[in-house]
């Protein structure tokens, strides 16, 4: 009896796994189509460019806020390093490397019908308008977020300086 039950359970599991793989393959196909319609690869390129631009503006401002003045040579070196870092980020997070992960995430998060509905929406004039305006929307948000980050970094810098001074005082007092 136990053997029959074990065989039945294994059969149900095997059928379930086969069904899940078939659904997953169809969902993956639909997710891939949706991501193409959503211009996800171009969105990634735009995001990297915005990140690159933000870093080039933000780092010198952060340094200045913390009283650090770079010479022209140091600024050139800092820019070169940031370009190298962003090149690594763009290479390691390229669309070719991310696409399978994103497709899987969409395929497992959305049902087949939801993927079809999303595809229909993004093919529609409203969906295309949304995609056309997404870079402007991101730019607006990025400017605000950059200002928030600058304010946050200033506060963090002040806290670090305060704590460093406290630690130095404590070390002096212990001597």
UniProtKB/TrEMBL annotation:
Boundaries of every DUF2059 domain copy: 97-152
Top-level taxon: Bacteria
Keywords of the record: Signal
Pfam families on file: DUF2059
Signal peptide: 1-19
Protein name: DUF2059 domain-containing protein
Source species: Victivallis vadensis
Lineage of source species: Bacteria, Pseudomonadati, Lentisphaerota, Lentisphaeria, Victivallales
């Amino acid at each position: 009896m136990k053997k029959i039950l074990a065989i039945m359970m294994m059969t149900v599991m095997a059928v379930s796994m086969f069904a899940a793989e078939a659904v997953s393959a169809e969902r993956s196909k639909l997710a891939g189509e949706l991501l193409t319609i959503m211009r996800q690869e171009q969105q990634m390129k735009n995001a990297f460019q915005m990140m690159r631009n933000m870093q080039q503006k933000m780092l010198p401002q952060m340094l200045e806020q913390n009283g650090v003045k770079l010479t022209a040579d140091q600024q050139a070196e800092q820019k070169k390093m940031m370009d190298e870092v962003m090149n690594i980020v763009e290479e390691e997070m390229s669309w070719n490397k991310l696409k399978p992960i994103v497709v899987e995430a969409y395929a497992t998060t959305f049902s087949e019908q939801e993927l079809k509905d999303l595809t229909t929406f993004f093919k529609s004039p409203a969906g295309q308008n949304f995609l056309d305006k997404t870079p402007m929307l991101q730019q607006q948000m990025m400017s605000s977020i950059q200002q928030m980050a600058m304010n946050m970094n200033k506060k963090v810098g002040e806290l670090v300086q305060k704590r460093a001074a406290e630690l130095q005082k404590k070390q002096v007092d212990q001597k």
